[in-house]
Design goal:
Largest sheet of chain A: 6 strands, parallel
Number of strands of chain A: 24
Strand order of the largest sheet of chain A: 1-4-9-12-17-20
Structural class of chain A: alpha/beta
CATH architecture of the largest domain in chain A: 3 Solenoid
Low-confidence stretches of chain A: none
Oligomer: homotrimer
Largest interface: A-B, 40 and 39 residues
Mean pLDDT of chain A: 92
Order of helices and strands of chain A: HHEEEEEEEEEEEEEEEEEEEEEEEE
Distance between the termini of chain A: 70 Å
Strand content of chain A: 25-35%
Number of domains of chain A: 2
Shape of chain A: globular
Number of helices of chain A: 2
CATH class of the largest domain in chain A: Mainly Beta
Chain lengths: 214, 214, 214
């Protein structure tokens, strides 16, 4: 009896693991994936400073410094995203802070790296493969050039602030010190090097103003 | 005897699952991956409107609305790609259509999202991390700016058409309403916002004409 | 006794496989991931021409032609990267060579494709989703336009050389024939089409000189 139970549990675990999905029709497999996602989220949630209701983390993500990350309600973090809050790097210590509001979606394979502060407001929608960083490896000085880039001191030009209702397209990059205003739209593949005004649409590399929504 | 058979099947499933690959030399593992890919493709194929001979889907992909997607022969869809045909979103209904010709390769981690129509011709070669979209979250009007971007109505400026023999580099983005002419080349990281003439080479963000092949 | 041993080994394999990770606290799971990475690296290492001490490959990567790839010491190759050295393609044969120095980090989901030569020096730090290629599908001539891009002869304009202490941001692309000088910085999303001088900072698509570090 005990052996049978063990077998059944064993089989369920195996079936839920990805290769097992092909034993089910596609629609059932989707539900199993959802179930797996819930278990994964439930498992990760206690590690965060705050983790709001109905938020969901899509398996698998790569996280560092969860205790510096606050996540609001109804947030989704896409699969294969990497969110890192560094409290030390090459002997320096930092006080990183990542704050994510309510109803935020961070697309798959996005990358957020923080030593200072990244604040994302409510209702921010991000596409896939977004990069957000508040820091760089060194400050581009002559003294550092003979140091390996991964051994240079991390330097933050300033915090990144993304206001409410911003929409960011696939593969955009938000650089240190940037403030993106309320309701702005950042086109796909845009590199945002400077502040973006409220309700502005920007695109290009580096970002240029396309128009203001009026 | 039955127990032994059960054990053997069990072991095979386990070995095929990724951790098990290290039990084999690399060359054998590659064949097992191919076998896994075939099982995966065989499992997904019946969900599509049409699925041509010798086409292959590389495990894992994320699909929505397979019944609106027609795939020709000898098509390859790269691993971790996301292809979504939305027939409803936030209360609106759509009639999406994705048509992919013969001998098309969609690179790994690409993203195709459709509410209207995306037509990809024959012999189209796409790099990795391509984005193709025929829609946007809202139409950038003042009325929408106070609505969360993920709650805005999806809007399609027009279908995307990619003619035969087009080659698209890694991380390029094709925006709504764009028609890419026969034999065109889209450089890596290009953002295509306007139509591309036949046999044109374009690059940049936004795309600029580099030359016409003559 | 034998059965028990078999069970225990079986269970360990299962637990190490990703679904099993949720049976442990997050911190323990991280160590298991590290262990898995070491096994994976140990398994792949003999396939390379050279594989230096303390180098690490993050599970899973996609490799082709390992015997043409030399990897120095303390190199890290990020998860889901694709590194391909083609010694034949569509009937043509090539002598590809990929040389990676010491203390190099290749970010997750990067893509390096070679038929000729890619040399990466020491202390090169690359972000995620980098593309480096020394070849293209055809040479953009009128004769080739009626050939499917994936059937065109691969053509290399020249080798790619990346000198020591270069730092490359997320999603940058390095095109064939490019030489990047010592200590240069390539901003995120940059497309490098021409040589980059020593200690230059470049950005944009195509890359433009931002400044020389002095």
């Amino acid at each position: 009896m005990k052996i049978l139970l063990h077998k059944i549990i064993h089989l369920i675990v195996l079936l839920i693991s990805h290769i097992g999905l092909v034993l089910f029709p596609y629609s059932v497999a989707e539900r199993i994936k959802l179930f797996k996602r819930q278990i994964y989220t439930y498992w990760l949630a206690p590690n965060f400073r705050k983790f709001g209701k109905l938020s969901m983390i899509h398996y698998p993500v790569c996280l560092l410094g969860c205790k510096y990350i606050s996540i609001g309600e109804k947030v989704g973090i896409g699969t294969r995203s990497v969110i890192t809050a560094w409290d030390n790097y090459e002997g320096d210590t930092f006080s990183p802070e990542i704050t994510i509001g309510n109803n935020v979606w961070i697309g798959d394979e996005s990358h957020i790296t923080v030593i200072n502060s990244v604040k994302i407001g409510n209702n921010v929608l991000m596409g896939k493969k977004i990069t957000i960083t508040d820091n760089s490896h060194g400050n581009n000085t002559l003294e550092e050039v003979n140091t390996a880039p991964n051994k240079r001191q991390l330097y933050s030009k300033g915090p990144v602030i993304i206001e409410d209702n911003v929409w960011i397209g696939d593969k955009a990059t938000i650089l240190p010190g940037v403030h993106i205003g309320y309701g702005a739209v950042i086109a796909a593949n845009t590199v945002v090097t400077k502040d973006v005004p409220t309700m502005a649409i920007v695109g290009g590399n580096p970002a240029r103003l396309i128009k203001i929504i009026e």
